[in-house]
Amino acid sequence: MNKSKNINTSIITYLIYFVIGCHFMACNQPQEPPASSKFMTKIEAYAHAMIEQGRDQYGAEQSPLFASALNRKTLNLAEENEIGEIDGVRKNDRSLTGANLIHDEDLFHLLYALAQETGNGNFAQEADAAIRFFFEHCQSPVTGLMCWGEHLFWDFFTDDCGYGPNYDFHEATNWSLWDEAYRLAPDAAWRFNLSEWDHQINDKATGDFSRHARYTQHETFSGFDFPRYAGQMIERWADAYSRPENASRDRKEELLHYIEVLFNRMQENQKLSKSGLLIAGRAEQGDHINVVWLTNNLELTRCLEEAAPAVPAELADSMLAFALKQDIDFLNAPHKLDSVGGGFAVTLHAETGLPRTRSMNKPYTSTWSAGYGYGTHAGVANICFDRYHRLKERHPDLSDQYKALTLRVGEMYLTTSPDTSILLKPSEFAEVIALMLHCYELSQADKYLIRAEYFAQAGIDLFIDDESPLPKATNQHNHYESITGGPSFMYQRFKLEIALKK
């Protein structure tokens, strides 16, 4: 009896030590980090690589600017003969030997967000250094225009503005980091805002302008007065006018006049079409006078809303009424989201209001393919999400329509996957991840977060490998190039990580 009892006690004691030992061994084994942790590591690795090796190390004057195109293995500037052409990206829009801050916008957003999330202030300091250098060194001494946009970039080898053979055309677009620009280089930021009136507007009485103007010398053009560029200049002037740090600036009061002139130009342009839709521009070259770009018009709408609080009440009311018409025109457009080959109607004929093709502009959006002059369902749905928020208080009926469109497109991406046999860009995945996050915010349905993770992993598989922390330019190219949306993909991946932590 005692012998049996002793045996049982020994067995129990052995089992206890066995379990403790197994637990000790398990605790000391290398643990596979959770998927979320691994992705954040990849995001930080990208940021560190760009900071440490993806800068201007060339020419007589090195700078903290980030390179737009890099060999992913060596992290040196990519050679043109090793990267080839990219469908949907025009040759003269690429910044292969330097930096283009417009394409780095989401890299800066990512660096500032990482600084806040990790507590590592170096991320923000490096972003500051690049923005400060750009505004202090990359502004034309003649015109005051900045070396950025669709056609200009800062060339690392010449330490000067670089551009293709079609002249030094300044063509700015939206820049969401004016707070940083004014904090780091206030005089340059202010001068740029005045320079757009002085050197971009062709006719100061009528507001006639072109999206193109010469960077190195004063030369303006006519008729290519696209709505989104008008809106972005109006927004910049209103922002400059409203800033307390500009209160005593010379010519400050002139900014209100600039806004009124350019807004009147858009009103007059809308009267030129039989359909009552706002035309792309007055130029007969390229048939712009017969074209309507609905998302261009929605960008003008956003800018007018941003600018309205800065202007006198009567002008503000007119701007908001004009903006509201663009919303109504978009919502009434012949969208075909439920048909094969359809999508959001984005390019219309100015006379009939029906979808049409123009050069690289396609009549409808597509599920995945995006490039110069055409885009995806997800990209436009993200605009709808923004319109939902902006109209929620003032026009809840229109806001609800935008919400419904956003969720409708979100549902489409729950059951569709990218065809990896075609050319795919990181920007397309960034747009879809953003859409899934927006749909989750609207519905609180976990299916959108799950799907966002799916697209994020699909993008990682396509664009990131063990060779480099930098995303590939496309699934068919092995170099890094910011114009195809690598920074945007990494930033949206970061935003997904934050959403998953909540």
Report on the structure:
There is one protein chain. With 502 residues, the chain is mainly alpha-helical. The N terminus is likely disordered. It is built from 16 helices and 11 strands. The chain is globular. It has a domain of 119 residues.
Q: Report the β-strand fraction as a percent range.
A: 5-15%
Q: Terminal Cα separation, in Å?
A: 59 Å
Largest sheet: 3 strands, antiparallel
Mean pLDDT: 92
Order of helices and strands: HHEEEHEHHEEEHHEHHEHHEHHHHEH
Helix proportion range: 40-55%
Number of contiguous helices:
16
Report strand order across the widest sheet.
Answer: 4-5-6
Runs in which pLDDT lies below 50 for 5 or more consecutive residues are 1-7, 11-34
How would you describe the shape? Answer: globular
**C-alpha-based Rg, rounded:** 26 Å
Key terms:
502 residues, mainly alpha, three-stranded antiparallel sheet, two-stranded antiparallel ribbon, 16 helices, 11 strands, 50% helix, disordered N terminus
Summarize the structure.
It contains 16 helices and eleven strands. With 502 residues, the chain is mainly α.
